[in-house]
Amino acid sequence: MADVNKVVLAYSGGLDTSVILKWLQETYACEVVTFTADLGQGEEVEPARAKARTLGVKEIYIEDLREEFVRDFVFPMFRANAIYEGEYLLGTSIARPLIAKRLVEIANQTGADAVSHGATGKGNDQVRFELGAYALKPGIKVIAPWREWDLTSRERLLAYAEQHAIPIERHGKKSPYSMDANLLHISYEGGILEDPWAEAEESMWRWSVAPEQAPDQPVYIELSFAQGDVVALDGEAMSPATVLATLNKIGGAHGIGRLDIVENRYVGMKSRGCYETPGGTILLKAHRAIESITLDREAAHLKDELMPRYASLIYNGYWWSPERRMLQSMIDASQAPVNGVVRLKLYKGNVSVVGRKSDDSLFDASIATFEDDAGAYDQKDAAGFIKLNALRMRIAAARGRSA
Amino acid sequence: MADVNKVVLAYSGGLDTSVILKWLQETYACEVVTFTADLGQGEEVEPARAKARTLGVKEIYIEDLREEFVRDFVFPMFRANAIYEGEYLLGTSIARPLIAKRLVEIANQTGADAVSHGATGKGNDQVRFELGAYALKPGIKVIAPWREWDLTSRERLLAYAEQHAIPIERHGKKSPYSMDANLLHISYEGGILEDPWAEAEESMWRWSVAPEQAPDQPVYIELSFAQGDVVALDGEAMSPATVLATLNKIGGAHGIGRLDIVENRYVGMKSRGCYETPGGTILLKAHRAIESITLDREAAHLKDELMPRYASLIYNGYWWSPERRMLQSMIDASQAPVNGVVRLKLYKGNVSVVGRKSDDSLFDASIATFEDDAGAYDQKDAAGFIKLNALRMRIAAARGRSA
Amino acid sequence: MADVNKVVLAYSGGLDTSVILKWLQETYACEVVTFTADLGQGEEVEPARAKARTLGVKEIYIEDLREEFVRDFVFPMFRANAIYEGEYLLGTSIARPLIAKRLVEIANQTGADAVSHGATGKGNDQVRFELGAYALKPGIKVIAPWREWDLTSRERLLAYAEQHAIPIERHGKKSPYSMDANLLHISYEGGILEDPWAEAEESMWRWSVAPEQAPDQPVYIELSFAQGDVVALDGEAMSPATVLATLNKIGGAHGIGRLDIVENRYVGMKSRGCYETPGGTILLKAHRAIESITLDREAAHLKDELMPRYASLIYNGYWWSPERRMLQSMIDASQAPVNGVVRLKLYKGNVSVVGRKSDDSLFDASIATFEDDAGAYDQKDAAGFIKLNALRMRIAAARGRSA
Amino acid sequence: MADVNKVVLAYSGGLDTSVILKWLQETYACEVVTFTADLGQGEEVEPARAKARTLGVKEIYIEDLREEFVRDFVFPMFRANAIYEGEYLLGTSIARPLIAKRLVEIANQTGADAVSHGATGKGNDQVRFELGAYALKPGIKVIAPWREWDLTSRERLLAYAEQHAIPIERHGKKSPYSMDANLLHISYEGGILEDPWAEAEESMWRWSVAPEQAPDQPVYIELSFAQGDVVALDGEAMSPATVLATLNKIGGAHGIGRLDIVENRYVGMKSRGCYETPGGTILLKAHRAIESITLDREAAHLKDELMPRYASLIYNGYWWSPERRMLQSMIDASQAPVNGVVRLKLYKGNVSVVGRKSDDSLFDASIATFEDDAGAYDQKDAAGFIKLNALRMRIAAARGRSA
Known about the structure:
- Four copies of one chain form a homotetramer.
- The first copy, chain A, is α/β, with parallel strands linked by helices and 403 residues long.
- Chain A has helices at residues 15-28, 47-54, 66-79, 96-110, 125-136, 145-148, 154-163, 240-253, 278-294, 297-316, 322-333, 365-368, 381-398; strands spanning 6-10, 31-38, 60-64, 114-116, 141-143, 178-182, 185-189, 219-226, 229-233, 236-237, 258-264, 270-276, 340-347, 350-357.
- Chain A has three domains: 6-67 and 92-163, HUPs (Rossmann fold, 3-Layer(aba) Sandwich), CATH 3.40.50; 178-295 and 337-357, Argininosuccinate synthetase, chain A, domain 2 (Alpha-Beta Complex); 368-398, no CATH class.
- In chain A, strand 1 (6-10), helix 1 and strand 2 form a beta-alpha-beta unit.
- Chains A and B meet through helix 5, strand 11, strand 12, helix 9 and helix 10 of A and helix 5, strand 11, strand 12, helix 9 and helix 10 of B.
């Protein structure tokens, strides 16, 4: 067992990380620093302070990181139109690098030599936390209790809690799902979802109404972009976190952003997950729409071809890697002209783009028109264009190559 | 002007291609063979026979290509989950290579030395027709009247038609949109769509009801896949064309598959297009879902990374190119295990996957479970996995590289 | 410690794997089956039989796999023009999947429940052996003694050998380098090479003369290709292994194929390696040359863009993965027309292509000529080709986008 | 024929562009401005002044662009390790964007409304000149005489020259090859090279001795890099153009940098080209070597995977495109740590890396060593690393998927 003096724990204030807190103190005979962040998960973070104190913690960090989260993590990712495996908007993945960064920074401030987290040994989050920590502080020790301890069943965990006088909240039934939430999304795993043929229960979803329950009238909104990021909603300037929170509220009310998928974890297994990402779903659609009129074709295609790789990097926990930053340089270099307004219709689960305009638009109606274009485009050029693009295939066909 | 003896014309029977027919006869003093195909566009093709006869055509080809179209073009493309620019399902693009192939085959049968089509000099379709024709018959002459003639306005075209006694159908108002349809989709361009800020009028859409008008009750369907292709709907075996036609009907009734985008044409301009692809929208969602449980992670990611390139090849008219066929080999090589059933919920514009099952499933609940896995997975392995994946970043950080 | 009944050991007959053999018997109290393969490493394999017998082995497999190795592993890889990190011809990497396959097959035949190898815990070879074994027999146990035992220094290893009466050959000095050889190459690591600034000693190299010592006269050879593979040398038909062995001899005599690089291992560290790949160096150059006249441009470019990924897969040990096989399908689909003859000049370390010809050549002198081409190519087509390719950039520039 | 007032001509001072000069004056009745650049082609540029004056040119631009050429075009390209089709170092391609830029700038300065060049309608250079011109000045007219005039044979050209008193230099025999040269390379096309089976004559090569004629003693050099660019040779600081010129001299003297290939032109045909790139060949090898110890693995692999696309962009003339600049942003973002010294041995055509060192080295001998590493690396981590990387393949194999 490694020699540890002080460990910074990513602490939610809930039962599991409270047990971890105590277990760290006992097992490593070390001091524990707690770090609790408000990333928009929708639960109060301040109560974690009293709980940590009760457990004997002296250094307690409780922080509101919502703006930093959206500005420096969510928005850069949306510039890439990142989607993992064609569906998943990376809501959990994108929060981990920020937590890893703060864990390391607090370790530096408090002189801690280790960090710890409550992610299991089967999931992606352990990888995301730890790759981040190692990339930012190579000598750091990482303690992942779920990979080490013998509290491998719910019963044992509860028994440990009782033994150590850790309060177990018994108000209401415990959710059968493993959940994670932040300003970008809420996720559900486990329970009946472990059967991929079983439909998710309506009662599971927390952030959005069912499309069936959404209003019968659509709502139209306008999103303004500057350099690829949303800066205003319906003409009103908003901070990154505010705009995302607002879109979550509107989107959720209209039944937008539910997703039910089987995804491939980095550790090698498939897993079923359900997600609600109301604001992100709107944001992605809108960003693509503003790019559609402002971005050069080949710039857009280059982004599209590299997007799956960029998304995998984030999913797999490589936010702090040099290759993610290289790709980000390339993506950001494309976003200067991505300015303008997108108009969207939200209705019972649907997000439809109905208009887009920009002072940086490359859409040229005088060229694209079916009407007379006054010579803006010479149709005869197309003959040569096609002829030369066909030349290699014509030569091959003339040599008898079957097409 | 090239010397032409006989030309095969892609003939719809409508006004424009009737004018082209006459213009070819006059301009090139050549015989015209007409080719009219039923690709599921929803209009009768047989009336083209009488029209062609009236215009003096002796060799008339009228063919039902619906099964070949879906089986050999649409389905292979959907194995790739192909989407152009993140949105467009390539409905027009995928029909052109089949028409090009038949034009060339008929030219070979009839001894024609040229082919002709009614696509304009500004669009993608001219490229798709002609690249196909050149790839399949390198010495073929291609006549693209819209790039050659001086009938550059509607007025001149109508005048020419009247002069040459070509019947102009005047029942109802002419649509303000340029449209194209086949079993996969119907498309709209032109008119008010030339302003990308203007919302499409509800009256424009032809294949689907508005989500607002769709039934208040969802419908659930099950699609069965064999080697990546749909083979049955709700347990009933169906031919490729039948399944797509049926999905169009169901999807359209539920307001599914409308799309409004600005896309980048291969000839260099941006253009606004609206599309209805009810069946294709369902098909894409279902195919991804069945792949999600049957396809290896890296196989799926490789497909995802190459998909944009594959989609561009089809969009740009390179179906008959060696590189498209190479990619198809790779894609098809992955589809043997893509078998099973996907359950979907259709409701007012939404297609939601609610279940998927397969005898070839790689989803292993005994490993993925949050419950005790009886040793199927050793969580301690994750520590080494992360440590070695982090090693290069740790070395860099230890050298002072800022992450 | 896992319960093991019988283990198949990749056995070279040398000291290290003899110690492993004994250690396995002692540590696991299990039966050991030895497998020794001739992959063209240039050492007799038959002596391994007596050594294994002395150590009490009853089931001894000694096999000549040279033809299978070149035909089914080396040649498919060369169809891809695979090079890792711009330089390395993957000589060690490509042999491992074949050994993994035979280990598993022998385990199946002999009823063994484990396999074992002599690769260390720092290198790539452990990964290659084990990924192969797991992919081919998921329940197999893998024993990697270097990761388990405490014989972590040369001294301890020798002491163990003496204790257990394992003969230590003392003829000549032990090489300071860690070496690996097969028909494709010989490699050197360790010793002074661990300083990347130190030049390799001339005495290290074993397969090739220094360019300075090579003949003063060049030699010309002709290689004939069929479907991407070499089938004849100077017009004489040769089996895969024979052609590679012959090219090694000729190439080595002319000082061809030495390489000195720092490469990135899959386990996360950089390492210095020196390689001699005489035949492979010639083969790669020749294959590119025959492709240059027989392969379509875009087919070639697609191969080039995916090559680094394909090479990484082989380097990292993923030969038996679905994604490698998908890429191989794509590559092989391109090789049908890769037929013809390449003429090369070999001189003091240089391999120069001086001629290439093929019945499947796409080189068309009548089009490419600087002389009059009799109308085979209409130069005016180029104007339209350029105009439309420039259109998107012209529109952007007209909007004030700085290029 | 377009209405042209003043045209800027890329003027070499040779016969062909002198004929073009006169032909432009005659055909377009316009003023001609000449632009002659020293890009290191090895011919005096000053004599072009008198010739242009004789032909009545009033505005004559003669410029030494060597430093700008190497600093802003060659060096950025080498940061990418760009090679087209596995072999070609892009010597001609990389000079064209600079010429296009100066043509446009001079057009702006002199109020010209057109530019002109002497590239033929079959080659890549017309595309490179014109895409650059259009991207930088969208309304510019481009005149490509070789695509327009009827001087389609050498005889007609000479006759035109005589008619118009254009001096034809008859000293020595005209080379049978079409050549292009600048500081990066000299190229040869045409003549007997149009037969790809014919070996290039020794007399053709101008910049390098044959390896057979090179010194019998090798020479060692050291190249120092800063942020990916060479800044010193053997410890002596040098400007970009000086270092390249010096490497050309040394490399040429040692028979380095000859290349004989069949390449795929952007306009659709294959063509045979021979190239001498002595300095560039050394530079590429050295840059890869310094990257090998200073660049992160995944950063290097990302560069390698995108390199073919980057190289094609330059080959095809898209230097001034947004996608080339996006890729450049990504590449340049990786080069900050690419600092250090590479030691190379040059001998009769061979460039061998024999050492590399850097303060930014990521090579860590204490980890990579075959000797005892004092715990820097825990070999047991490899077991978990392999197990999880194998997991997806094990699950598939357990389901009966054949590997």
